[in-house]
């Protein structure tokens, strides 16, 4: 008997401790996608950046993610002498994660280096980062999305734009004009309503019309990344709800009137701090027109919703790879799990779902890169569809992937519990599941060009598969339904669109066999509610070979 040192038994049939892995190079979808749709960016610099980040995310950043989630941020409201400081202390791993993300421009790449394919490249980097740590993805996405609003405001000092376009991460507590890099937060939700932001009670009073400066008084019930340099926020003016930028520090280098009440004790998303705040005569700059606050901030929210879809697709990919890896090394009853037919069914089903999620999220990146009116109409409705569907899939998907690993999937030394705790929040924040489905209806009613763009997209593969055609035919019928019933059935409609669209993207990316498998398992009348119910006709080997690693 060859016992290990300090062990009275031989350890066998346990997977090897995982080595750092380049998660870009080992993800066939990413490189194929670049070949297929990224001709504008598939140059050596791009591939080098993705390889570097894939290497980092598959080892160093994942370890940092473990530390940053284990050592949660802590609030210090007062210093030792009783002075109010409102400081949140983060583990050094949190700062290092953001340093690396900013260095690669994940928070600003399409704005700092605009050009063909910039959104797709940034999406891939963001996808890699989320597999290492999703908590830091929150300030990254808010900064990325916030810039799209800031950029339109000529009256703001230039340092706001310049600092947002920097690749420096500067966590020092100073006025934005003195910093080498800036991060943004977003504060909309109040106690009486997060979905119903029209019910916000925070009030804004005009200080100086010329400088568009206002004072805010009120509260926000959720405000993530509260050490950000500026917060896009909403408050009531005489003209109605308006959007503002509230700087963390004042031009005279004293703190602005943003008082942190406490940090939320959350289910997951532990590396990220989420706080409750009050505004006490908080200085703020108007963004957009008074009374048009929702329209102004929705520009930002559209992008954060898109990032939620990307982020959840990344969590699913990470979970699936862990499950796959375990099953290729673990035997039960003398046979590797990967060779057990029922486990193959589960893994192939997970693989289909994971890739369909990623393809749908990246399709939105291509909309942004294209920027044509039709593609932006598709993006408008597509963000709501993708955020609802992908983010809703992620928790159950990760649970299934964890179960493939048996008891190990439930143990904190593995990443699965962290992914599982993280998953629900993408579905919740930036507008919860129902809100996304109602937004699909709103887009259809108010912006009919969205319906045209969507139907053109879905019809482009019509005639290739009977299940697809029959499923597609149901969508216009649902749309013509009674408006009252449409709201009741908004999830049914959104799910139908999402799965149809995913099938179309699978057709575009994979061969006819995998497309047919996807259509039979997702679009036919016999589709299953749990994973692992693919039918006997399914091309299991082809899926596992094409999709996994
Ligand atoms: C970890 C975390 C961090 C957050 N960070 C931020 C932040 O930084 N900034 C910020 O502004 N907010 C933040 N939020 C708040 C988040 O965006 C809100 O919690 C969310 O929008 C839901 O609002 P609510 O909690 O008030 O729920 P409610 O608005 O009360 O909604 C409750 C439920 O009702 C559903 N619902 C609402 N309207 C309808 C309808 N008409 N028909 C059917 N169902 C409906 C919703 O989908 C939801 O499921 C954060 C939340 C979390 C959990």
Attribute tags:
549 residues; alpha+beta; Butyryl-Coa Dehydrogenase, subunit A, domain 1; Butyryl-CoA Dehydrogenase, subunit A, domain 2; 3 domains; seven-stranded mixed sheet; two-stranded antiparallel ribbon; globular; binds flavin-adenine dinucleotide; oxidoreductase; Acyl-CoA_Oxase/DH_mid-dom; FAD; flavoprotein
Compact description:
The chain is α+β, with helices and mostly antiparallel strands.
What can you tell me about this protein's structure?
The protein has 549 residues and is an alpha+beta fold. The chain has three domains: 28-162, Butyryl-Coa Dehydrogenase, subunit A, domain 1 (Orthogonal Bundle); 183-294, Butyryl-CoA Dehydrogenase, subunit A, domain 2 (Beta Barrel), CATH 2.40.110.20; 296-547, Butyryl-CoA Dehydrogenase, subunit A, domain 3 (Up-down Bundle), CATH 1.20.140. It has helices spanning 28-37, 44-57, 60-70, 92-103, 109-112, 118-132, 137-150, 158-164, 293-327, 341-370, 373-404, 416-428, 433-446, 448-459, 466-479, 483-488, 490-509, 512-522, 540-547; strands at residues 74-78, 84-89, 184-187, 203-208, 213-224, 230-237, 240-247, 258-263, 274-287, 331-332, 335-336. Strands 3, 4, 5, 6, 7, 8 and 9 form a seven-stranded mixed beta sheet that branches. Strands 1-2 form a two-stranded antiparallel ribbon. Helix 11 packs antiparallel against helix 12 (416-428) and helix 15 (466-479) packs antiparallel against helix 17. The longest helix has 35 residues, at 293-327. It binds flavin-adenine dinucleotide (FAD). Residues 185-189, 193-195, 222-224, 266, 269, 274, 425, 428-435, 438 line the site of flavin-adenine dinucleotide. GO terms for molecular function: acyl-CoA dehydrogenase activity. Keywords: FAD, Flavoprotein, Oxidoreductase.
